[in-house]
Every structure is written in structure tokens, then in C-alpha cells.
Amino acid sequence: MKAFLTLLQKELWEYRIVVKLPLFLALFAVLNFAFVMMSDNATISIQSTGNGVIDWGLRSDGFTGLIGKLNELIAGMLYLILFMIYVPKTLRKEKEEGTLMFWRSMPVSDYLTIAAKLAFILVLVPVIASALLAFSDFIVWLMASMWLPADMMQSWQISLPNILVHWGQFIGTLAMMSLALFPLACGLLVVSQLTRYPLLSVMFAIILIKIALFQITGNGELGSQFSAFYGLPVDVLMSESALNTYLDFGWFANGGMLLGGVGLFWVSCWLRGRDDATKAV
After folding, report:
1. What's this model's pTM, rounded to 2 decimal places?
2. How far is Cα 19 from Cα 29, in angstroms, rounded to an integer?
3. Could you tell me the residue range of the domain that residue 211 belongs to?
4. Taking all residues of the chain, what is their mean pLDDT, rounded to a whole number?
């Protein structure tokens, strides 16, 4: 357990952006309140077109209405951005800086090392993102207490207990996002050990797969279903019910993704161990 915590501390020290970026965003949390000061209820509809259409409808009737939803989106997108920054880079960074053999000399297995990296991005970073949400909500409550009458605060559900409820609901959303991101994280860890440009390689592979599916079937239905796989974390974030959105993807599909993630985790550990053996020779 001590070794695992040490590995987490190492990741936090090397990737201080996971702390600096939320602190930077926290300075702008107050702007959410100013944008929609006069709105008691609002609806956002975001739609993208392509081979598949994603329709995200957000009904803002929770804590502070639309402002609370904006706080969720900012904190959730922060999580996704940090995920995309960290995962493709973390194992390549060991190779490029020459620290792989040093950590290999320590009494830490490849399985524990990569498990710590996954825990860092899928558990610790969401905790930091949830702290940003709680801080943003607290700023909104503080300003509302100074500027708004009691009846409007009640209408917008602005209170300290509702902050806790909102925070708890958002933690549930982040948990579902982490489950959806687990196989993607393991896949990127594998690809990052095979190429210097993992994100570019994955994007190119996705395009080729969707083209192949279209040529085989003559329509974009399978391509849309494939897009739903890597779009699930965003769908969970944008939905009214994160749990329902995750479960609606299907028990078979979710179970297959989790099992696939476990398999990719093993492959990633094997590749890291192979690199160690190669360098030792």
C-alpha cells in the first residue's frame, strides 16, 4: 500500500497541471453566475452531425439552474482534458526521460505501476474535478447570499445542503465516466508503447474502421454504434442521469468493454516489462 501511494505521489508531482489547471479555472467560477443572473430556468440543446447524430438535451432544474449545469460541464470537461493530456504521455515519458530502468530497479511491479497510473487518472483526477465543482458552487452560494433575495435563492435551490447534494450527484457522474474511460485508458497505454504518436494513431485507426464498416454494410449504422463506444464518457457527462445513460449502453456492451479493458491492462503491463527486458539486454 505504501508503494502504491508513493507512485500516486510521483504522478501528482510530475503532472502538477492536474492541480494548476483546476486552480486557474476556479478563478473564473464566478463568471458562471454573471452570465445567467436573470434566468430561473433554461434549456441547452447541443447537436452534432456526421455519420451519427448526438443530441444532448440538458434541463437545468437542479442547483442554481443553468449555472449549476455549467459548473458540471466545466469540471467534467476538465477531467476529459486532463485524461487526454496524461494517458497518451505517461508511459512514453518514462522512456524519453530514461527513468524506466530506475523505477524498474525499485521493488514495484509493472502491474502495480500501471494500476497506480490508472488510479491517478480515473480516481484522483475526478476527485480534483469534483473539488472544482464544489468550489464553484460555493462561490455561487456566497454571491447569491449577498445579492439575491431569499425567495429567489429558494427558487434556484441555492443552499449549502443542495451544494452537497449537487456534489454527490456529480461524483456519481464522474464514477460512470471513469468506468467508460477505463478501456480507453488501457487502450491508449498500449498504443503509447507501440508508437510515438498514440492519439494520432488512434484517430487514424478510428477513421479507417468507420470507412471499412461503411464499405462493408453500405450505411453508417455500425459506424454510429462504434462512435457511441468512444463517445460514451461525453454522453454520460451531458446526460440528465449518468447511471441510466451508462446502463442504456447495454450490459453486454459494458461488460465487454470492461473485460476488454482488463485484457488491454495486461497487454500494457507485458509491453512495459518487455521494454525493461530489452533494455537490460
Report:
1. 0.81
2. 16
3. 2-15+65-280
4. 81
